[in-house]
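Reviewers asked in the last cycle whether our approach scales beyond single polypeptides. To address this, we selected a multi-component target totalling 712 residues and predicted its structure end to end. The input consisted of the following lines:
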Amino acid sequence: MKFEAVTIKDIAKALGLSTSTVSRALRDSYEISPETKKLVLEYAEKINYHPNPIALSLKERRSRSIGVIVCEIANSYFSQIINGIESIAYNNGYNVIISQSRESADREMLNLQYLTSRSVDGLIISVSTETKDFSYLKELHDRGMPIVFFDRIVDEIETHKVIVDNYKGAYDATTHLINSGYKRIATVSNAPALSIAKERLAGYKAALTEHGMEVDESLIKYCAHGGMILTEVEEAIKELLKPKNKPDAIFASADKLTTGCLRILRSKGYTVPGDFGLVGFSNTDLTELLDPPLSVIRQPAFEMGEVATNLLLQLIESKRPVTDFETKVLTTELLIRESTRKKIAKTKPVASLLKE
Amino acid sequence: MKFEAVTIKDIAKALGLSTSTVSRALRDSYEISPETKKLVLEYAEKINYHPNPIALSLKERRSRSIGVIVCEIANSYFSQIINGIESIAYNNGYNVIISQSRESADREMLNLQYLTSRSVDGLIISVSTETKDFSYLKELHDRGMPIVFFDRIVDEIETHKVIVDNYKGAYDATTHLINSGYKRIATVSNAPALSIAKERLAGYKAALTEHGMEVDESLIKYCAHGGMILTEVEEAIKELLKPKNKPDAIFASADKLTTGCLRILRSKGYTVPGDFGLVGFSNTDLTELLDPPLSVIRQPAFEMGEVATNLLLQLIESKRPVTDFETKVLTTELLIRESTRKKIAKTKPVASLLKE
DNA sequence: ATCGTTACCGGGAACGATTGCGTAAAAAAA
DNA sequence: TTTTTTTACGCAATCGTTCCCGGTAACGAT
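The resulting structure, written as structure tokens, was:
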């Protein structure tokens, strides 16, 4: 079934004009008489004419659409990012095509090919945990495709990037654990090759050393798929519990890792923050309703999406090749709740629950 | 900046052939000699030729893209649905354009216009709570636009629809509350005009009457935006707590309403399931980690997305106008956890936490 | 009377790909 | 050898739109 739309030809035929005249009348050209314009405009309105964007795309060699690749949509952080992207794109007449890599480099590549063959005007990407070979992306970029990275950025490719201050986020969280009285702080991290993993790890280590605590590599565990596969988190926790000198707190470095840790700890019968303190990056709005309410580092996800999109549009609409790229660094927010309160408060604070 | 792609003309020019020959060679037409084919194919491969989908769209009058309208992406239920939609669409060479109504009829209308002007081949929609006037949608459908509704369907428009057995879901949940010993069961529902709200309310009422309990209209509260605005939920709860004969359990009829109720109850210092039993529709995978773990009615969201997309593609690719429409009804699943356990068990069950 | 302006409008070539039709040359049949 | 058939390719129209060229009036100035 097809959906037949009105074209400029229909108007031309009905009004006994040429298509060029109609086109010009619609674009309010100076060489069309006011009467003709009025005629065309009114008729176009009457039969509900809308220019065919596909024909325009062909003519102007641009599709007015941007591609977005994230690892998964069903993740608060990314869906908030997408929200931000969408709001800006929409306001500028662009549409957004979303695809998911599901942390697979293959799927990411496929999506990339798909999106470019669909001739998107630009791309906003957070690479998968698995991606090691950026040559395809690099080639794309070299051939002129505007790209903006966010979250998991690629150092090898020079373009606009949007991140948060991961170092500081991790530093603050770890410091908070230290100040709360935790002595042996472990971390469950993302795939070590990832930019965010490195930065967060660096912040974690810095906080430890600056407070006179030594960095114990056996307390650093990695989950290759960033918590998307729960058994990886389980494995990490199992490892952490092995030695006699168990940690007394965990800093989790990604959304799914944070809730994953809680899930595993609880399933093993441990209590938080009794047996372990827990803090992590997370953007779920349910963290305060969890048992226990989780202390989290929250990223300004919506804003990140907005910023990334503005940068991309700037790139797309620039007449000359852009060579001056910037990396926007937004700040995280540490929300302190029960999960890092070493001495369990019997009376739960409820006043702040209504916020958001 | 533009991203210059290789065209069929480039190949033709380089090989001293006509564009038609190249086109036919690429499509493996019988009237092209094997040598020429080989030549073209190899050269196309070499310079990384990809047919321009926009030119194809213009020629074939189809864009191979489908539009999706949901109220918000950052909602587990909808992002799971989108996941399902995307997986099927992708496998069939379609791309998905997503937009959000944010429960506003105006935004929904705008999105609709935008998507159709972008000439999508079909639409998958869950209408907003606010939408009362379906004439635009109806007109679109009458003019031949393939549409599939899911979740919040529109009775006035005859087309494929995908829902769950809302009646049974609500009935089961309410019955579960009754069997757990709750005596005065309230419900917090969606906008009353919504199909899902009606069906769930009917299931709730049926369960009550069938178990010899009377339906008390003062125990039925509505939230016009389905929990998206928390103050509406707060207002509803406040109303429920007014009369002396307070309810002892709440059945919430949407994802955000369920977590919203928990949020409000906890912020007011009530305990669940001590002061109130709570069960509701929800697709978050965090419900078992909440305090208390929530009993929920879970919808097969991913599958719903798949089914809806298959139906839509069927509609799009049908040669003749389809007049025989079907409504697929999937089944919900009741997951029983702490929030409906009238007598608080001291030892929390942890074995099932690892599932999913 | 001739020329230059100005005001309006149409023809037709793009954009990239497909496809019906026409046709030259080569191969097969007469 | 002539006719017919097959093979293999090119021409041109098409999709909807824009825009570069024109073209033709009407009118004033010379």
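Chain A has three domains: 8-51, 64-164+301-332, 166-298+334-354. We regard this as preliminary and will revisit it once experimental data from Aim 1 are available.
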